Amino acid sequence: MNELRVLVADDDASCRMVLRATVERLGHECRVAADGDEAWRLFEEEQPDVLITDWMMPGLDGPELCRRVRHHEADGYTYVILATALGEHENVLEGMEAGADDYLTKPISPFDVRARLVAAKRVTELHKELDRLHVELTAQARTDALTGLGNRLRLHEDLEAIHDRAVRYGHTYCVGICDLDDFKRFNDTYGHQAGDDALRKIGALLNHESRAGDSAYRYGGEEFLIVLAGQSLPQARAVLERIREAVEALAIPHRASRSGQAVTISVGVSAWEHEQLDTPAAVLARADRALYESKAAGRNRVTSGEPSGITPNVR
Ligand SMILES: [Mg+2]
Question: Which position among 73, 160, 222, 223 bears the catalytic label?
Fold first, then answer.
């Protein structure tokens, strides 16, 4: 079995010796501390899987050590076992309320240690699995299942971060909204399966065509969004123009389109304006209005959003 990393804290040298010998004989790794302060230092350094701690020690005592371990922000979980003298059952309850998972009665019996470490192993492994699932679910919750691009939740988190950096360092950024032209007509003509295929292809193209530093997201049904960090409006416009051409060059047939014979996108792009103290929502709203202008002007084109100083009603 995979060995556990165990930390033993006890001011009694013979207790430390017995515990260490038992733990090591069971194939686990063991560190020892002679008082609570040393135990805490070792805990912070090594974040052991298991802490076996005495109740009464110089420096931090057992319960205080338990409380610190529980309040420590850590990646993993440390299983805490309180070692206490026979007949001190009230200590056990107090210790468990302070965060201990289990207890051992002194004098230490190797059998008890072994049994406690079986439970400790199961619990720490469960916590590791939960941590892994948490990381996986966090990523999944931010990914669009169809295209594999970031979804709206990831967009909002990323955009906030990019915005904060732009404010702090005086950078700029642009946002481009890309909408498939006549997508309802496409689905009506070719079916939803073909619609999904088209979305997947265009998602892959956006992911590929956006430079390192830019990020593409699926914004809604047939809407994609690209955040172009550190780019001016003319630069962003050029990138999006290239992407618009690349989508057209995919030549996905679309006989019901009103802007040609293939699937095309209309794009609205806007820049964050430093001096206007824009919010990310205002930048998005401007890009959205520019997208609407692209649609109104005949689709399959890129339109830049008016600077907010000129457009009076920025929400
Ligand atoms: Mg003691």
Answer: 222
